Amino acid sequence: MEKLFELVALETKRQNEGLELIASENFTSKKVRALAGSVLTNKYAEGYPGRRYYGGCHYIDEIEGTAIELAKKLFNAKYANVQPHSGSSANMIAYASVLELGDSILTLSLDEGGHLTHGSPVNFSSKHYKVTHYGLKDDGTIDYEALREIALKLKSKLILAGFSAYPFIIDFARIGKIAKEVGAYFMVDMAHIAGLIAGGYHPSPFPYADIVTSTTHKTLRGPRGGIILTNSEEIIKKVNFTCFPGMQGGPLENIIGAKAQSFYEALQPEFKEYIKRVVENTKVASETLRALGAEASETETHLFLLNTKKSYGITGKDAEALLETIKITTNKNMLPKDDERPNTTSGLRLGFAAVTTRGLTEVNAAETARIIHEFLSKKITKEEAMIRVNKIVDTLQAIDSL
Ligand code: DSN
After folding, report:
1. Where are the domains of the chain?
2. Does 164 sit in the ligand 1 pocket, CB within 6 Å?
3. What is the pLDDT of residues 162-175, one digit of tens each?
4. Relative to the CA of 115, which ligand 1 atom is closest?
5. Of 33, 46, 287, 384, which is the active-site residue?
6. pLDDT in tens, 238-247
7. Alpha-carbon distance 244 to 93, whole Å?
């Protein structure tokens, strides 16, 4: 259908012509895209390598086996399941593998930086499990001491760490120790920081975590999908059975092939270099905004939070819409203790993984922060901002050439 291809061309143009600052997005390589769009999508392969419910799976087995081996190597884990269709499916499978319905889980709430699947009232996780949240201190970091006290008091069955809008390094060793003391499973959802972990810029959840879930498309720069890792033979058996036949049917082998390619790419020395630049660019942008007087969080990762209400007197929703008019794509995000609703919010979450893939320099990361600040404080017009955005975009690699 011609219309669909016209829309893909328009979306390609939009991605090429803008500055992508959504912290959970990235730009995949040609090889990742080729595998995702390959004939592997034609094949049914319910089951696991060597144990399929369909014939003709010998090449597919090798592809999925390669993805499993590379995932294990990349994250230094003993076992991997590469079939979850998404991060949310991975979390659903992980919970169901080690918990009974109604068990108590201890997580960070969505508005403090967690994720919908970490027990949001509108998500399956709060309907299937008894959810309690730990919280952040005033400086925005996890209150580990309070986390320990709650876990001991409630005898939580599972403690979850790994977040969607948390700009600091997570002390996995400390939470792992608390989980052991309590007798809880320690689950890590490393979706946002998987690339940082692979690149050596965030400590690994292993050997502390019992079960680790992730998406593959954020800082890891793979196709849209999920994975589950563990060092426990008992847990991987449960995960495999819960994934198929428990929750999913035929695995998306085209996406699994693309996942394998992205794990291979993340094992190359260039990926470490890339992640280093992501962290540096993010830091420079957040420092620039603070130096200009904006209320931006500090950062040790690929993202930070900008309080647009305090900085510019506008909600996150309005800031997102305004920035879109100058081709800077962001997302409104709840801030810790936000009094606005999730579809309004008091600020933005800004991330530099995607633009850094296209070659953004530190100088231009600082310039991006200045444009955001000056435009949202009405110091420059839309036309002036656009000229400066275009100047940066002109220095970036085209997304189809990556
Ligand atoms: N929706 C994703 C994000 O933007 O962080 C998490 O799944």
Report:
1. 30-266, 269-401
2. yes
3. 999 999 999 999 99
4. 6
5. 46
6. 999 999 999 9
7. 10
The CATH homologous superfamily for domain 269-401 is Aspartate Aminotransferase, domain 1 (3.90.1150.10)
Among 31, 44, 177, 370, the one annotated catalytic = 44
Ligand 1 centre to CA of 164 (Å) is: 6
Ligand 1, atom 3, residue with closest C-alpha? 24
Q: Which residues of 209-230 are buried (b: 16+ CB within 10 A; e: fewer)?
A: bbbbbbbbbbbbbbbbbbbbbb
327 and 17 Cβ atoms separated by less than 8 Å: yes
Q: In the sheet that 331-333 helps form, which strands lie side by side, from edge to edge?
A: 303-307, 347-351, 331-333
- CA 29: distance to chain centroid? 18
pLDDT of 109 = 85
Angle, helix 172-182 to helix 144-154, in steps of 10 degrees? 20
What percent of the chain has pLDDT above 90?
A: 98
Give the number of C-alpha atoms closer than 13 A to the C-alpha of residue 65, restricted to the C-beta side: 10
Whole-structure pTM value: 0.96
Burial of 8 by CB count in 10 Å (0-12 exposed, 13-18 middle, 19+ buried)?
exposed
Q: Which of 66, 117, 213, 215 is catalytic?
A: 215
Domain 30-266: assigned CATH number:
3.40.640.10
**Of residues 179, 199, 180, the one with CA closest to residue 190:** 199
